[in-house]
Amino acid sequence: MATIATRDAQRKMHRALLFLLLASPPSATPAWPERAGIPDRSKEAWRFTEHTATGVGPFARTLAASAVIGGDFYVVGGHDGNTVYTDAFRLTLDPSLHWTKLKVVRQENASLKKRAMQAHWSVDRSIFIHGGWDNSNLSTIFSDILEYNVDSQRLTTLQTTGKGPGPICRHAAAVMHTDAGRSVFVNGGWDGKEWLDSTWRLDLDASVDGRPLMPVWTVLRTEGFTPWKRSHHCLMAGPRAPHLLLFGGGDGDQDFQDLYTLDVTTGYWNAISNTTGVNKPRIQGGCGLLQLPASDANGHALIAYGGIGGKEGTKHHTVEVLPLGLPGAKGGWAWAELRLSGAWPDGRNGHSFHIVNSSCMLVFGGAAGFGDDRGNTNALLLVRPNRLVPAHELPRDGAGGWSGGGDEDDEDDGPQLLSLDGDRDGGDGGDAPLSREELQTKTVSELDEIVRTKTVTRRVQPGGPKKKKKKKRKGVRPDTPRVSVRATKDEV
Prior knowledge:
Radius of gyration: 24 Å
Strand content: 25-35%
Number of strands: 38
CATH class of the domain at 46-388: Mainly Beta
């Protein structure tokens, strides 16, 4: 009898495992413990909000070096099509949005002058700028690495050994942390003669017998489904080492929308061809990894925003989301548009795009026009969860909540009412919503805490969703404070 009971338990376990495998892409590792506190954003609508920060901010520019370090956003260099900037700025995100112009103290021959189309990355408290070309003489291409420390505000030249890529521009770079230390990977680009498909590795923590050495360049020997030569693509460390993710880019004749992974230990390129949904070919777009809640077996999602590409050179304005399983997952990866509350901003390319945390994305600058009227901007946009999507607006095919906004039932054309249920005395046994004045006094971190710990609901008429043709809301007490979540430029 014990044997029969054991077999029945095993059969039930096998059925449960089979259901999980069919319901979502397989994962070879358990949910990461550090994701336990991350809220589920898949059923929320996000909103683009343009902010006007205080202080002295940067001029309109594109293709600047940028990073989020210690909770602050930094911008170094960039250009507007004519002028190459050699300045640096810090945007404080907490307790309020405030720009500060930083010094750039040059050491020896380190210079940002005339440098454009470079790659950049950040490590610790420094931003590194690699390569680029001379904006006044396009035949001159740089090969050095500049290091700008945001604390000392000094610009120095990083000394390296080994054979690196040489003069290079329009390439992509990414930092990866492994058991062997920190490494920077550089892929693709233009060397002045041809487009490149090579990959180089710069070991930042090289040592011999425990003695640290200068960073060492090596060329990575690769095989498999090597991506075609390209530039202005996205390269980033995957959610699980030792894999890199490569997305998009172009070779001057065509723009790409393909996705690859690279195992940096074996040098094997894998083409991810089993994706579904729609994404757009693009160059100069913004990409990042959004950490998903522990309940999501995918762990992370690739976020792609903006860029320019396609036959007509369209500037993209939507945000595409690709939940990621393990590289080579058989379950299939599906692209979808981020569910939006409100209007998309204008399309742009060459902008800075960073995922600050699980509930905030940051967009700065970029170009929104063509030709002489490039439409360069210094606009600062924050993309944040706005509200929970009501059940009648969620996809009915069980595909999840990443589907794009603009459904027929969506009522984002007008202000929405926001209620944050918590330990606030709202009278009549209920909780009153936060007023606009109260929301404006909250810092970014406090708003994060509110969204993470409170239940966000939208007030609708009791008994079901309000019909679209009826604009007047019923069932809400006249004395209830109404909070519009349609943010203005002055709201932080």
